[in-house]
Write a structure and sequence with these properties.
Blueprint: E1 8-10, E2 16-18, H1 24-30, H2 34-39, H3 53-65
Antiparallel strand pairs: 1-2
Helix pairs in contact: 1-3
């Protein structure tokens, strides 16, 4: 089951609609960066500059259940002296 996450945008008449993605500042306040967000398939709207607290709360809730998998770097092999 695929879980989708959408940003909310406030229209001038104070109604909400689904947005195209989260702004960079919303990602920053939620504690992630755009690179990790793309790995988790979180949409990013590069044109948006605004920050909505509801979107930050949505991102924090999503990130608490979905942690980005970090790859550990293998240790370099030592050359043996023989």
């Amino acid at each position: 089951m695929k879980q989708t996450i959408t940003a909310k945008v406030l229209k001038p008449d104070r109604k909400q609609r689904a947005g195209r993605g989260f702004s960079r500042d919303e990602l920053k306040q939620a504690g992630t960066n755009p690179k990790d967000a793309l790995k988790l398939k979180i949409p990013i709207d590069l044109k948006r500059k605004s920050v909505h607290e509801e979107n930050v709360a949505t991102l924090k809730a999503f990130l608490s259940t979905h942690k980005p998998k970090s790859k550990s770097k293998p240790k370099p092999k030592r050359k043996s002296k023989t």
